[in-house]
């Protein structure tokens, strides 16, 4: 997965990304929180997840490329990362949301070769 691909919805959402706000987020090993905001900007699509009390209210930005599936009936999205990978992610910094260096850091964490990367062949 290239840096560009990590910021692109791999699965086309059945709903507009803005409608994903409030959806539950399910990691490969359990629930991690709810979507606080979502963006479908070309080459920089993402969701911001409020993890709530799970890890003391931390918010994290997840690139759209980590979403595996969106279930509009259940109002839930599934991501191909573990709870620990998401817990270890840099905390969301809304003042840097559009900063390319910040996105590169997150892309490196979640993308190929990054600390949070999970080989898709092991699913």
Number of helices: 3
Averaging pLDDT over every residue, what do you get? 80
How much β-strand is present in the residues? Answer: 25-35%
CATH class type: Mainly Beta
Runs with pLDDT <50, length 5+? 113-123
What's the CATH H-level superfamily name?
A: PRC-barrel domain
Order of helices and strands: HEEEEEEHH
Main sheet: which strands, in order across?
Answer: 4-3-2-1-6-5
Helix content: 10-25%
* Helix and strand composition category: alpha+beta
By DSSP, the count of extended strands is: 6
Distance between the termini: 15 Å
Characterize the biggest β-sheet: 6 strands, mixed
CATH topology: SH3 type barrels
Assigned CATH architecture: Roll
Description of the structure:
This protein is α+β, with helices and mostly antiparallel strands and 123 residues long. It has a single domain, classed as PRC-barrel domain (SH3 type barrels), CATH 2.30.30.240. It is 16% helix and 27% strand. It is built from 3 helices and 6 strands. It has helices spanning 3-6, 83-87, 100-110, and strands spanning 24-27, 30-39, 46-50, 59-63, 67-71, 76-79. A 6-stranded mixed sheet has the order 4-3-2-1-6-5. The longest helix is centred in the last third of the chain and has 11 residues, at 100-110. It starts with a helix and ends in a 13-residue tail after the last helix.
What topology does this entry show?
Layout lengths: L2 H4 L17 E4 L2 E10 L6 E5 L8 E5 L3 E5 L4 E4 L3 H5 L12 H11 L13
Parallel strand pairs: 1-6
Antiparallel strand pairs: 1-2, 2-3, 3-4, 5-6
């Amino acid at each position: 997965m290239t840096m560009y691909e990590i910021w692109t919805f791999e699965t086309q959402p059945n709903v507009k990304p803005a409608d994903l706000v409030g959806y539950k987020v399910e990691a490969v090993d359990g629930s991690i929180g709810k979507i606080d905001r979502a963006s479908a900007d070309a080459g920089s699509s993402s969701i911001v997840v409020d993890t709530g009390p799970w890890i003391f209210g931390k918010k994290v930005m997840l690139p759209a490329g980590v979403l595996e599936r969106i279930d509009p009936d259940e109002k839930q999205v599934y991501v191909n990362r573990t709870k620990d990978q998401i817990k270890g992610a840099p905390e969301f910094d809304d003042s840097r949301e559009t900063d390319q260096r910040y996105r590169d850091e997150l892309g490196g964490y979640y993308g190929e070769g990054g600390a949070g990367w999970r080989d898709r062949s092991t699913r």
